[in-house]
Amino acid sequence: MADPNRQELPARERAVGAVGMLRRRGRRAGVLVAALLALVTAACAVPTTVGDVTPAGAATGSLTRDLRDDLDAYLRLRGQSEHVSAAVLSVNVPGRPRTIDVAAGTTRFSGTQPVAANSVVQIGSNTKAFTAVVMLQLEAENRLSIDDTLGQWLPQYRRWRDVTIRSLLNMTSGITTYDAEPAFMKDFAANPNAFLTQKRLVSYVAGRPLKPGYNYSNTNYVLAEMIIEKVTGDSYAHQLHKRILRPLGLRDLYYEEHLYPRRVTDRQPAGYFFIDVLPPLSPLVGHDLSRDSMSWARAAGGIVGTLSQMTVWDRALYSGILLPARQQAELVSLVSTKTGKPIDRVSPENKDGFGLGVQQGVNAKFGIHWAYKGGTFGFRTLHIYFPDTGLVIAVSLNSQPTDDQIIKLMTSVFDTLVAHGIR
Predict the structure, then answer these.
(1) Dihedral (C-alpha) 192, 197, 201, 207: value to the nearest 10 degrees?
(2) Exposed end of the chain (fewer CB within 10 Å): N or C?
């Protein structure tokens, strides 16, 4: 039965893999093995339902105080059910010299140490846009074409020889995601600190048939990582640093293909896995996985950093300063997440469109917007960019629960900003 107290907005969240399947179909056991996780990136065109978290409403004085009230309200209402202790927020307003950075809660569940606004969080599949930009920069240098095939660059995968780089990046390759495989789940639960190579991750799905249309897959971006390294003769990590992090001065965004050093992890809150309906991962429920290996995520979702720096990146991404005009147009060229067919822009018929590592949505609350929610085993990080005004908002929560309502927090933050004359 529908909850009469909930307000349904026109666009629904599009989480993928097991998390998405559970939220769309409920907790039926048959779903669990069919599509188990794809946690790295529950991609979304927000929002879905709102109503549990009330915004600060009319401006009461301090914007920072009102935004912190939003975070506190979410933790008070959702902290127990989502096993979340920390909420971090950054707002990047055009024309302001600094981001508005706010945090609430504690670094650990039932802990006492306050979480800092400049905490490091796992941004999950927000990483994919970085990977797409590196690939498009290589195209602009005439070192590859995104219409090249895997047969040209990764001939060892003969089954996929006709798959193009473009279809990897826009999720129409038909290649399934490794992290929805029971074998991957079992291996990860047995040793979350194991170093997983690109080859091993791809091997979980190498024998699977291709699926037509739009199919969200982290395997696509591991294959893209392999192509970047083959074209450049260099590591993905170094290319990322040389092409994006260093030029933009993003000293508080980091990428490691395995374990992060203490200087980074000491700034992270705990990150809890709290999906309690996935038997292969049941040994991990309630555990802090924030310091374990990120080799399972790689170029699909392995970047960590502060939300303030992520919003600086998001502004650069959408403003087009990183790519020539042709490649920027390719970045934001969309396919429908319903059909996998090209669309010019989102509409009432196609509310969600996926570009090359970016996603556009439309709804009554936000209008046309760019948004991405990245998920890891212990974090959820959502950003929204409003093209009409240039406003960027990013929020992160330190758990991955079965019932994820982060969009309610984003909506309350947006309403508070509007009440303060920021939109």
Answers:
(1) -140
(2) N
- The region, left, alpha or beta by phi > 0 then psi within -120 to 50, assigned to residue 174 is left
pLDDT in tens, 29-45: 333 433 344 443 444 44
Tokens 């909420």 locate to 87
Strand partners, 335: 342, 354
Encoding tokens for residue 362? 């439309």
CA distances from 278 to 14, 216, 302, 326 (A): 19, 20, 22, 43
pLDDT tens figures, 54-86: 444 444 469 999 999 999 999 999 999 999 999
* 15-24 residue pLDDT tens: 333 333 333 3
CA atoms within a 13 Å half-sphere pointing along the CA-CB vector of 47: 23
CB distance 94 to 392 below 8 Å: no
Q: pLDDT tens digits, residue range 392-415?
A: 999 999 999 999 999 999 999 999
**Closest residue by Cα to residue 356 from 164, 203, 212, 198:** 164
Task: Kindly report the pTM of this predicted structure.
Answer: 0.90
Give the amino acid at 330.
Answer: E
Task: Using 70 as the pLDDT threshold, list the residues of the chain that sit under it.
Answer: 1-61
Domain segments of the chain as ranges? 7-126+235-278+287-419
d(CA 59, CA 69): 12
**The residue to which tokens 């196609």 are assigned:** 350
Q: Could you report the per-residue pLDDT of 108-132, keeping only the tens digit for each? A: 999 999 999 999 999 999 999 999 9
Nearest-angstrom CA–CA distance, 94 and 218: 32
Question: What fold is seen in the domain 7-126+235-278+287-419?
Answer: Beta-lactamase (3.40.710)
CB-based burial label for 414 (10 Å; 0-12, 13-18, 19+):
buried
Which residues in 371-380 are b (16+ Cβ under 10 Å) and which e? bbbbbbbbbb
Q: Strand, coil or helix: what is 366?
A: coil
- Apex 76 CA angle, 107 and 19, nearest 5: 75
